[in-house]
Design a protein that fits this description.
By secondary structure, this protein is of the alpha/beta class. Helix content is about 30%, strand content about 20%. The chain has 14 helices and 16 strands. The protein has helices spanning about 25-35, 50-55, 65-80, 95-105, 115-125, 140-145, 155-170, 190-205, 225-245, 260-265, 280, 285-290, 345-350, 395-405; strands at about 60-65, 85, 110, 130, 150-155, 175-180, 210-215, 250, 275, 300-315, 335-345, 355-360, 365-370, 375, 390-395, 410-415. Strands 1, 10, 11, 12, 13, 14, 15 and 16 form an 8-stranded mixed beta sheet that branches. Helix 3 crosses helix 4 (about 95-105). The longest helix is centred in the middle third of the chain and has 18 residues, at about 225-245. The relative contact order is 0.15.
């Protein structure tokens, strides 16, 4: 179960650089004030006592006002370029609070790769159209037709099964045909076969409407969504329209990594749809990986973990070594005796903890096991003690794992 705290204002603003480590006494005093004074604080079930509040680490905080603003800004800029926006919410496990904040920006359609997330949002009373972002398994087709208005597709076999389900359920379904432009994940590589299949689907699947074409970038192959590749996608869309005899609703030009073309005003004519998630729910890739100065976007999420041990130790293991817990053969640099902090946070919580970005100056992540993260604090700007809380910015992998983990408590500002 998620634990919700509104206005848990340990920081002044998520838009500012991460603040200092805060200590247990300071956190306890702050939380005590929240419980007694309210401050628009919503606390559910097990969070009724200070004791239970203090067990809220590791902790993922999301500022919902920043989520709303990110979604609004990207939607507005996409709209100015004639592009519809489908925010992808799979990176936060379709968290209900985050999803509602995105919908507050006037969003009508959401995207996810997991049907279970759609089911959960429906159960929480969330009203939105859904685009399924992963090609369905044949065993999922009944639920795809039941839960999603649109799905990404790359072959006749699955579409034929969707047609059968549409007949059984008395429904219709839209599909976006995926074109592989070089990233080598999903999509047709043979262009002629794509066009032939479009003609076949139109003829044999009356309950299925081919509503668009799409492509994917910077995933398996890490290929960049260039103007040339997106022009190729737009050109294929025109060929599909000739075969189908109607204009396509979606010419879907990728995800967050395609957004820089919108930001710079370089998106080719004919691209009218993007599936953007990371820039809304995290905003790490654009400024940190792509060098895009999106001063109108900010990161809404912050991770906190508690220190359980602080000791000076050798920087190289002592004794005969073998493979580690994850079948790796780590290599160590002898830096002498170094001060280390051990966190109650591990790979089970955040995936590759080495990708976390410490907010405390001088902190260096050395490694992580399933349940612990080891940090060199020898050069930190402040003294760190057992019980202190360290804060981190996240990469997409970290956020995805943290959102899925039941052991990472979720709290919200400005709910």
């Amino acid at each position: 179960m998620q634990d919700d705290v509104n206005n848990f204002d340990i920081k002044n603003s998520r838009e500012m650089p991460c603040k200092k480590i805060f200590s247990v006494p300071a956190a306890r005093k702050r939380i005590k004030g929240l419980i007694s004074g309210g401050e628009n604080c919503k606390i559910k079930e097990k969070m009724q006592t200070e004791k239970n509040i203090m067990r809220l680490f590791p902790q993922l905080e999301t500022d919902l006002n920043i989520v709303r603003r990110n979604a609004s800004e990207i939607k507005r800029r996409c709209g100015e370029s004639g592009i519809k926006l489908t925010p992808a919410v799979k990176g936060v496990n379709a968290d209900a609070e985050v999803v509602r904040a995105i919908l507050d920006a006037g969003i009508e359609q959401l995207g996810t790769s997991r049907l279970s997330q759609i089911e959960r949002c429906n159960a929480n009373g969330i009203k939105a159209g859904w685009l399924l972002l992963r090609i369905p398994q044949l065993c999922e087709c009944a639920d795809v037709v039941r839960l999603a208005e649109v799905s990404l597709e790359s072959g006749v076999d699955t579409v034929t099964e969707l047609e059968k389900e549409c007949v059984r359920q008395g429904r219709s379904h839209k599909i976006i045909m995926m074109l592989d432009t070089g990233d080598l994940r999903e999509g047709y590589w043979d262009r002629a076969r794509l066009l032939d299949d479009c003609a076949k689907i139109k003829k044999t699947c009356p309950h299925i409407r081919i509503a668009g074409i799409g492509s994917n970038f910077t995933d398996y192959g890490a290929t960049v969504p260039t103007v040339d590749k997106l022009e190729e996608l737009a050109a294929m869309a025109r060929r599909m329209e000739e075969i189908l005899g109607y204009p396509l609703e979606y010419v879907s030009g990728g995800a967050t990594t395609s957004y820089p073309l919108v930001h710079r005003g370089e998106m080719p004519k004919g691209i009218n749809h993007l599936r953007v998630g990371e820039a809304i729910i995290l905003n790490h890739d654009l400024p940190d990986e792509w060098g895009i100065d999106t001063d109108y976007l900010a990161s809404p999420v912050l991770l906190r973990a508690q220190v359980v041990e602080v000791y000076d130790k050798p920087s190289v293991p002592v004794g005969e070594t073998a493979t580690d817990a994850f079948d790796n053969h780590p290599v160590f640099t002898d830096r002498g005796i170094r001060r280390r902090a051990l966190l109650a946070l591990g790979r089970a919580d955040v995936g590759d903890a080495g990708k976390l970005l410490p907010c405390d100056g001088g902190a260096e992540i050395l490694a992580a096991t399933s349940d612990h993260t080891i940090i060199d604090i020898g050069d930190c700007e402040r003294e760190i003690r057992v019980g202190d809380i360290m804060e981190f910015r996240l990469t997409y992998e970290n956020l995805m794992y943290a959102a899925l983990s039941e052991d990472v408590r979720k709290i919200y500002k400005n709910a």
